[in-house]
Fold this protein.
Amino acid sequence: MRYNVYLGMVIRHNMAQLKEKVLLYNFTDDEAVNKIKSICRKMNIENQIVPFENWNQKIGFLLGRRGFLPAKENREDTFSFSDEVLIFAQLNDKRLDKFLSGMKLENVPMIKYKAVVTPFNIMWSLRRLCETMQKEHGAVREGKNTTDEQ
């Protein structure tokens, strides 16, 4: 057993139940999806396509983790996000590097937004994760432009 402390709570993890998994969100390119699924198969990593309408669900729920309940549907709230997202759960650095190298070898088009599940973002909704990555990407690009001008 492994234990993590999160906001003062001790969370017990049964390592046998936490499998490597890749979530694919908002993909429209079937060829890219098939290549990513092929890499997952070769590396024995579970994968799951997340339907767009699940943007309000918590990452933990999408991963099938215990203790996460489905979010209540809010018909008044909308979410507009056009980019593809890969979310990696339980992959160590070496396995993640191998996966990303496999994507290059298979000529998978560049995917701008990728995230690794953490004890913090597992509690976030998919929408929050996407919006956070979008803001961070914008800040990085803005920083590059500032640096380039100097």
Q: What stands out?
A: Residues 146-150 have pLDDT under 50 and may be disordered. The helical segments are 30-43, 59-62, 93-105, 126-149. The beta strands are 2-6, 9-13, 21-25, 46-50, 85-89, 113-116.
